[in-house]
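Minutes, methods subgroup
Present: GH (chair), OT, SY

1. OT presented the first of two proteins processed in the latest run. Sequence and C-alpha cells recorded below as shown on screen.
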Amino acid sequence: MQRTPADLTPQTMADATADPTGDARAPAGAMPGWVWALPGGPGCARHARAVLRDALASLGAPRDAIADAQLMVSELATNAHQHAGEHGPHELWLYVADGDPPVVGAGGGAGEVRCAVFDALADAALPGYSWTSGDCGRGLSIVRELSGERWGMRRTVSRLGPPVRGKAVWFAVPGATAVLS
C-alpha cells in the first residue's frame, strides 16, 4: 500500500520541455509529485530541509537517504537564495523521473525519485566546482558526490501559480524507490 504524506497535498506538476536555446515550450505532459513554495531569505534552506525530511519520512525513505537528501537540498536552496534571490518564485519539487536523462553526471531513468529546487533565473548555467576556490563553490560537488552523479539542471517553468520561465536544479534521492507513482 502506497503511503502519502497526510499534511501534503499531491499535485500534478505540468512539466515543460526545453529546446536547445533554453526556451520553455508548452507543457508536455503530467509529472506526479509534490511542489511547495520556498520562502525568500536565509530561511529558504532550513524550510526546504524540513519539508523534504517530512515528505521522505512519510513515504518510507531510509533514514540515511533522508539525511543525504537534506544536505543536498540545503545546498541547492542556498544557491537559489544567494544567486537567484530576486528571481522568484522559488519552489521545491519531489517527483519520480519519467526516464529523461541527466544533464550532468550519469545514470538515472524511470522510477528514480528526484528532488529539485526551481528559481526564475533561467540564464544561469551550472558552474564548475573547485576544491581550491575558498569558502564558496563546493556545494554542487557535494550534490554530485551524494547523488552518485545523478543530478542536473533543466530549463523549465514554475509549477505554482502562473508559469514563470526558469530552471530547476535536481538530484536523485539515493536509496529511495519510486514511492510517488
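2. SY then presented the second protein from the same run.
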Amino acid sequence: MRLRKQHQRTILFVALVFFILLGIVMERETRTEEDTTASQKVVAFPVELNTASLEDLMSIPGIGPVKAQRIIDYRESHGGFSSVEELKNVSGIGEKTLEKISRYVTVEGVEQHIKREVTKLNVNTASVEELETLPYIGEVKAKAIVEYREKNGPFRSPEDLLDVPGIGEKTLEKIRGKITF
C-alpha cells in the first residue's frame, strides 16, 4: 500500500514536530536538574557566626530567612559576635532556640566553655565607640548618650538613660547589667 505524497509529508511533519517537542522537554529537564544541583550548597557545621552568609545561616535547623538576616544585622551593627551566647541578643532567638542551634554554630578564636569576666562599661566616661559595644546601642544612640551627658552632666542611675532620645525601657533592660556609673 502506497501512501500518497500528501500523507507522507503529513507523517514526516508530525514526526518532526514530535522530535522537536521531545528535545525541548529533555532540555528543560536537564536544565532543571542542573539548577537544582547548583543551588544546593553543602554547608560544613559548625557555621562561623562572624563570616557566615545568609544561606549558611539558613542551613541551620530552626533558622529561616528572617532570623538569619537578624543575625547578620546584629553582627554588622555590633562589630561581630564575641561568643555564641551573644545570639540571645538577636531578636527572635531566646534560650530554647540557642540551645537547639548552639551545636551548629561557633565563633572562631573564642573559647566557648570559659566565661570571661564581665566588666561593666561606665556610661559617664565611655567614648562613642565604647558605647557602641553595648547591645542595641549603635552609633546614633551612642552619640545621643554622649551629647546628653555633655549637656546635662553625669548619669546617676540606669533610669536616667531613659531621658536620652532613642533609649526606651527595652533597650535599658538589655544594657542594665552591662553598665555602671
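Chair's summary of item 2: The CA atoms of residues 87 and 93 lie 7 Å apart.
Next meeting: continue with the remaining queue.
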